[in-house]
Amino acid sequence: MSLNLLNRALDAELQRLADEGRAKAPERVIDAVIPAEGERGPRYRLRGSDQTYLRMNANSYLSLSMHPAVIAAADEATHRFGAGPGAVRFIDGTFEAHVELEREIAAFVGRPAARSFNSAYTTNLGVALALHTKQTYWIGDELNHNCIIRAMRIAGVPSAQRAVYRHNNMEELKAAIEAVPEGMDRVIVIFDGVFSMRGDHAPIDQINAVLAPHRERFREGLITVVDDSHGVGAFGATGRGTEEIVGAQADIFVGTFGKAFGVNGGFVASSNAVVEAVRQKADTTIYTNPLGVPDCAAALTAVRVAASAEGQARLAHLHARVGQLRAGLQTLGLESIPGRHPVVPLMVRDTQKTRDIVRGFFENGVLVVGLNYPVVPQGDQTIRFQVNAAHTEADIAEVLRVLQAIV
After folding, report:
1. Is there a contact between 325 and 385 (Cβ–Cβ < 8 Å)?
2. Which residues of the chain have pLDDT under 70?
3. What angle do CA 147, 67, 341 make, to 5 degrees?
4. 3-state DSSP call for residue 90?
5. What is the pLDDT of residues 264-288, one digit of tens each?
6. Which domains does the chain have, with CATH numbers?
7. Sequence-separated (6 or more) residues with CB below 8 Å from residue 326
């Protein structure tokens, strides 16, 4: 067979990943969702097992994926317009739901315009493709998400035109901006809003203060980009994300519908000129089908729920459960990273112990994720808990009881 040699080479690569501890575990398959009952939130069943599990590893922070209105909106849109768009956006693949969703999410994050994508990952790729020129310099936080790093590479940013500062280190950011070489017309400072492995957030107010003396220095601007995929909908007093927490805005906002809003898709929100440039230049929206109308309808409804009184009640409950979990970790004398986001890290700092804790939780009916090197830096091995609005007080108490028993 023509694949024999390639298969052999790939098998060797995969074995090296396993030997280095970098291989992904076999995927578990969820085959049933058991609705909340009494003091217990929803439980999940895995294929091949009769046990049910409490999920502490889901991004659906507001627990909207099973919301009746969200499901009904997707169902109605499917019957009206079909399951798929049938074309890319510029070849009559734009439906009313795309336009409504973009108008609604732009208003939610306080921007004039927005453009939806299939994911926040492809959004970041598209933004980089739209903004990068031969005279553009990029500066990023060392803990930026993989999609930001890939975006720079796909956009063809050479190593001489990018710099990295230590995580949230404003002195290093200051040094990086001061060291931008002559001849750069445009500088882009890009960072996560909430850092998904840690649950801490970017100090956008401090970043803006560092950059303020340099705002007029570059012919085509000094621009900030925040990817607040984990923040939007779930963070801040009204769920407007990191910007609400710190009281300051970035110039360009990237987010997702796939976390707090519980559905699919990503978006960029900014000025009309930025969004139109993305529409014209971003390959990851030009040459691929957009979100289907059912996805748009579900996302639109989820955003409206999040902005409603019901959404605010879910958010308040979510924040209370985050506080409960953090207080429990402190009572147990365990190390975490300070923060208010639903990502709550337990710092284990040992690979084997991290694996043992994940296994212990699994054996006790709780799904958590362990983060080991190279996903996180060596020495930062972590159990990442993710709290959502469907978790009850009894659920978090159960997690803490199991944790006390296995650490």
Report:
1. yes
2. 1
3. 45
4. helix
5. 999 999 999 999 999 999 999 999 9
6. 25-55+309-406 (3.90.1150.10), 68-307 (3.40.640.10)
7. 336, 344
